[in-house]
Amino acid sequence: MSKKPSSVKAAPGCEQPFICPLSKLRVGSACRIKQLSASPEIAHRLREMGLCEEQKIKLLSQQTNLICQVCNVRLGLSAELADAILVEPLRNEELVA
User: Fold this and answer.
1) Nearest 5°: CA angle at 89, between 88 and 92?
2) Residue 17 in 3-state DSSP?
3) Whose CA is closest to 22, among 49, 44, 51, 47?
4) Residue 14: pLDDT above 50?
């Protein structure tokens, strides 16, 4: 079984195989969370807010802080926290609704 080539372009600092920190994703991109590399307490809180592994999210804004859409809710995250959330950009057919 071969993988389909991805039509997603990585942002600088987000190299193949397309697993990178959320903070490196381009604004407007959808992704799937693959790993939370924060402390156990922080990772637990992120999961409580809906930011759990395999969850699809969309990056809406990236300035001092990041704003993500998770389950039709907008959440603000610090850039430091976004560095601890490892994501995989989604192909066009997998985009968040």
Assistant:
1) 140
2) coil
3) 51
4) yes
Token reading at 61: 């804004």
Q: In order of start, what are the domains of the chain with their CATH numbers? A: 29-94 (2.30.30.90)
Q: Which amino acid appears at position 20 of this protein?
A: C
Query: pLDDT tens-digit profile of 71-94?
Result: 999 999 999 999 999 999 997 655
Output the CA angle 36-72-75, nearest 5 degrees: 50
Q: Is the peptide bond before 17 cis (omega within 30 degrees of 0)?
A: yes
**The two three-digit tokens of residue 13, written as one number:** 């600092």
Rg of the Cα atoms in the chain: 13
